[in-house]
Amino acid sequence: MKAFASFMFALLAVVQLGCSAADTKTTAAENPYKKAKVGQWSEYKTVSEIMGTKTEVKAKTTITAKDEASVTLSTVTEVNGTALPAQTVVIKFEDLEKAQQTVKSEELEKGSETLSVGGKSYACTWVKTKVTAEANGAKSVTIAKVWVCEDVPLSGLVKSESTTTTEMNGNEMKTVATMELLGAGS
Question: Are 174 and 165 in contact (CB under 8 A)?
């Protein structure tokens, strides 16, 4: 299960970075985490449905350390109203860039739109993509529409809507999720 969770985290990071790169004309070497600063934070609410079970997750992520090679994120999460212990993860830029190379991404549509979330308006660019990834024995296909704005700290993510089908060990799982910014700052 830990391998699957790691795969899904890496996939989400790559999808976000891939969409951010497509929208802002950056390369993997210029990913948004490289521009982030210690103390910046973003908070999201994600509503997902996996195998008929709906889940609501609120997560606030703060950059607690950063150097030229990595960023350290501390995330406080609440799942269906229950607080979980804070989690800290070190993301090495090199690892994200390698993961991005193993992902096949196909741009389906793109555009711009102003979204109002968390009581604030954001001038966003959006991209709809089909992302195919394989890692740790799992194959995943995601159709995602991701809205980003460079004014949002960390990844630039304002909103995402996705449907993911994952095959692992002969089993298939479908996940439908919407993720939306609740707030951000420094």
Answer: yes
Per the domain annotation, does 176 fall within a domain? yes
Q: What span, in angstroms and rounded, lies between the C-alpha atoms of 119 and 17?
A: 25
Domain span at residue 137 reads 2-56+91-185
Q: Which two tokens stand for residue 67?
A: 């150097």
- Asked if residue 173 lies in contact with residue 166, where contact means CB atoms within 8 angstroms, the answer is yes
Question: In this structure, is residue 61 part of a structural domain?
Answer: no
Residue 85 lies in a domain: no
The per-residue pLDDT for range 74-133, each reduced to its tens digit, is 999 999 999 999 999 998 888 777 666 667 788 999 999 999 987 889 999 999 999 888
Total number of domains constituting the chain? 1
In the structure, what pLDDT confidence band is assigned to residue 6 with cuts at 50, 70 and 90? very low
Q: Is 12 helix (H, G, I), strand (E, B) or coil?
A: helix
Residue 162: Cβ within 10 Å count: 21
Distance CA 164, CA 173 (A): 8
